Amino acid sequence: MNAFDLISVFLYVQFLVLFILSLKCKPPEGKHAKLLVKMAWFLIAGTVILLIQSLFRLF
């Protein structure tokens, strides 16, 4: 894993934490809720892809 991978993983984790905190603070409504859910799925998918790539580079 190089520095770029670590920064990418850190940013995705940070976005996920911020997203979870924003959901706990107040429930989103309407169009914003759908947008936030889509954003969360993209972030989760990106994080999984980055972690898989990092694992393949280790071996």
From TrEMBL:
> Transmembrane residues, as ranges?
6-23, 35-56
Q: Which UniProt keywords apply?
A: Membrane, Transmembrane, Transmembrane helix
Presence of the UniProt keyword Transmembrane in the record? yes
Respond yes or no to whether keyword Transmembrane is given for this record. yes
In Swiss-Prot or TrEMBL terms, this protein is called: Uncharacterized protein
Native source species: Anaerohalosphaera lusitana
